[in-house]
Each structure stands twice: as C-alpha cells, then as structure tokens.
C-alpha cells in the first residue's frame, strides 16, 4: 500500500492556501491583529489568542493591554494554544490535499484531452478543444504541464488550409495561453496558417478577434524579418481597426498596436503594402472617432508613413487629412502634437500652398500660438514656430493676424 506523504509545515500550508485565494478560513483561526491565519497561536492572561509574532510586536511597542479587550495585562507570559494549533493544522492539511488531488485530476484530464485530439474529429474535436481551453482558463497552473507534454505542437498542428473556423478559434484560444517556442512560431507563420488566422480574425467573435490579435503579436515578437507579414494579414488588421460593433472592446487598440509594430519591424515592405491597400484615407477618417490612446498610435502610424515619398504622396492626396489633424491638435498629448506637425510638414513639402492654406483655414495658426505659449518641450515649440512661419508666407501680415484671431495686445 502506497504511503501518503505528510503535509508541509503549517507556515508553508498557509502560504500555499493564500496563493490559491482561499477565503473560507474559519474566523477562529484568524489573528485579531493581522486578520490573517495564525501560524503559532498563543494565549494571553486575558484568555484572548493571537499569533505569536503579532502579539510580541504589540508588546514591543510598549503596550500593556490586551489588543482585543484593552484590559491591563497582569502577566506578560504567552501560553501556546496547542489545541487551536492542531485544529488549524488539520483544516489546512485537508485543504492542501484536496487542492493537490483536484490539480492532479485536472492535469490528468488535460492530458487525456490532448491524447484525444489525435483520434477524434468533427464536433468531438471541437468539444475537446473547448474543454481544454476552459481548463487552461480556470487552472493556469496546468499550462506548463500541457507544454511539457507536447501540447503546443498537438494543437498548432490542427491549424491548416482545411481547418474549420470553429476548430481554429478554439485552437488559437489555447495557443495564446501557452509559451510558444521559436520553432512553433516559425511554423505558425506559414502562409496557409496565417491565411486561416486572418479569416478567423475577420469573422470570429470579439473574444476570437482578441485572441487572433494576441497570437499575431506573439509571432511578431519573434522578430523574424524574413517572415514579412502578408497582404491578407494587413488587410485583416485594418478591418480590425475599423471594428464598429464593439469599438470600446480593445479590438481597435490591438489592431492599431499591431500595425504600428509591423511598420516599425518591417518598415519598407509593410509600408509599401499598407499604402497599397488604402490605409491612409481609412486611418485619417478614423481619427475623429478614436479615444486618446488609440489616437496617439494612429498618428504615430501616419507619421511613420509620412517619412516615405509614397506615404507623403498618399497623405497629400487624402482630402480630409489636414483638417482632421489640425482639428485634433489641442486635444492630444505633446507626443501626439509632434506626430501631427510631422505629418503636416510632410504634406507641406509636396504641396506648400495647398497645405498652408487648408491648415490656416482650419485654425492651425491660432493653435500653434497656443502651443508655443504653453511651455511645451523645446522640440515641439521649435516645430510650431517653424511651421507658423511657413504658413505666414502665403498671407499679408494683416490677413494672417486676422486668421490667428489674436487680441489687439498680442498683435
């Protein structure tokens, strides 16, 4: 007969139970001073019991009273409460073995589900994947077990050109909860798998879209420059950014973050592709609808695009870009203002008269003066001064001053 291993010391038991968020500890086990389970209960002459470390600290501070009853202590001796210690130890030991058995059962169930994925198909496969995903959600501690038993390879092998979206959604929901090796990431970047990922992201639920975006981010972090994102992936991310059903769900933010990272990682190849799918007018039209966090990332993307000749041309040809950027200038951070001025500067290089005229009519001059007077950082102030000078070149002094809407004193 196999012997049962003895439980750890009480201190270790309590620490492990606290990490498991056990909230049903009997109140009699709780120290009145720390409101935490007692590790070494001792009783005062008043009959009140406390954890030894807490009552010693109380007494060391010069107190001569019982913390609970506030009675004067006629005896400072501490009597170990062995009966209560036994009750506490027994209660936590039972909890410990119960949780340990439950975890072993969960691990065993997870491994059985992994094994079943090699055999079952259709709805049975979907059911196994869904149960495994739910286990990983509710028991994060089994994630290492799944990885160690080749679970990542088993699940990722289910993604392919003929995978149904329901199977793919569940598989992706599992993969984003696990640590992926470089080899697995390379495998997931194969065109057929990326195509499936994009299709699922476009048609899935909000949770599925979020999982797809997270998986794409995990793949990007691998930093394989040779594995440049496909055009279909960029199209999918742009659709994600234009999500209208759940704009506050975080999907838009995730999409913008991924596009920004791709522009930063892969630069020329992605910028060329993203311009070819009409990203500039779509992002420009989105600007007025975005919250400040999304707006900063969107302006950063447009600023990255404005650094290329093709990007500047696309911005110049976009009818609303100057008005939208100028309108947002005073509701954003200094970082956003720098992005905005950099975008306008790029357009000005191609069409100085058109850009200056549209910007001034949209109220840029007055806003730049406010920026200059606001005590902003030197770089932003210099940019504002220079752009204000450029805008004034196409106007007489009196007309430009009237466009600024200044008071007589400032004039």
How would you sum up this structure, described in words?
Keywords: Transferase, Ubl conjugation pathway. It catalyses: S-ubiquitinyl-[E2 ubiquitin-conjugating enzyme]-L-cysteine + [acceptor protein]-L-lysine = [E2 ubiquitin-conjugating enzyme]-L-cysteine + N(6)-ubiquitinyl-[acceptor protein]-L-lysine. Residues 24-98 form the U-box domain. It is an enzyme of class 2 (transferase). Pathway: Protein modification; protein ubiquitination. It is a single chain. The chain is an all-alpha fold. The chain folds into 3 domains: 8-54 and 78-116, 2-Layer Sandwich (Herpes Virus-1); 120-266; 278-411, Alpha Horseshoe (Leucine-rich Repeat Variant), CATH 1.25.10.10. It contains 22 helices and 3 strands. Strands 2-1-3 form a 3-stranded antiparallel sheet. α4 packs parallel to α7, α7 (165-175) packs across α9 and α10 packs parallel to α12. The radius of gyration is 32 Å and the shape is flat. The termini are far apart. Residues 406-411 have low confidence and may be disordered.
């Amino acid at each position: 007969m196999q012997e049962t291993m003895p439980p750890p010391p009480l201190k270790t038991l309590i620490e492990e139970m606290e990490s498991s968020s056990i909230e049903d500890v009997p109140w009699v086990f709780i120290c009145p001073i720390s409101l935490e389970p007692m590790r070494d209960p001792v009783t005062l002459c008043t009959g009140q019991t406390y954890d030894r470390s807490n009552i010693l600290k109380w007494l060391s501070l010069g107190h001569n009273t019982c913390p609970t009853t506030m009675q004067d202590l006629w005896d400072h001796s501490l009597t170990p409460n062995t009966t209560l210690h036994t009750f506490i130890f027994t209660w936590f030991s039972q909890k410990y073995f119960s949780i340990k058995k439950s975890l072993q059962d969960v691990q065993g169930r997870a491994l059985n589900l992994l094994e079943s994925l090699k055999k079952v198909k259709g709805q049975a496969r979907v059911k196994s994947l869904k149960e495994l995903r739910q286990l990983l959600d509710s028991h994060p501690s089994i994630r290492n077990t799944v990885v160690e038993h080749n679970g990542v390879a088993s699940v990722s092998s289910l993604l392919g050109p003929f995978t149904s979206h329901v199977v793919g959604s569940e598989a992706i929901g599992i993969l984003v909860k696990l640590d992926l090796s470089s080899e697995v990431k390379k495998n997931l970047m194969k065109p057929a798998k990326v195509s499936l990922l994009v299709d699922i992201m476009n048609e899935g639920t909000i949770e599925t879209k979020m999982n797809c975006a997270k998986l794409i981010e995990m793949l990007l972090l691998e930093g394989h420059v040779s594995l440049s994102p496909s055009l279909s992936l960029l199209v999918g991310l742009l659709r994600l950014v234009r999500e209208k059903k759940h704009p506050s769900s975080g999907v838009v933010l995730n999409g913008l973050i991924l596009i920004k990272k791709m522009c930063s990682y892969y630069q020329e190849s992605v910028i060329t592709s993203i311009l070819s799918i009409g990203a500039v007018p779509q992002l420009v039209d989105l600007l007025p609808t975005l919250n400040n966090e999304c707006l900063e990332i969107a302006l950063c993307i447009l600023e990255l695009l404005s650094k290329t000749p093709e990007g500047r041309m696309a911005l110049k040809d976009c009818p609303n870009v100057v008005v939208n950027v100028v309108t947002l200038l005073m509701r954003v951070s200094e970082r956003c203002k720098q992005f905005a001025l950099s975008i306008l500067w790029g357009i000005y290089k191609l069409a100085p008269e058109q850009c200056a005229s549209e910007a001034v009519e949209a109220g840029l001059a007055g806003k730049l003066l406010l920026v200059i007077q606001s005590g902003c950082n030197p770089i932003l102030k210099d940019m504002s001064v220079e752009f204000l000078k450029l805008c004034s070149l196409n106007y007489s002094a009196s007309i430009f001053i009237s466009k600024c809407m200044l008071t007589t004193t400032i004039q």
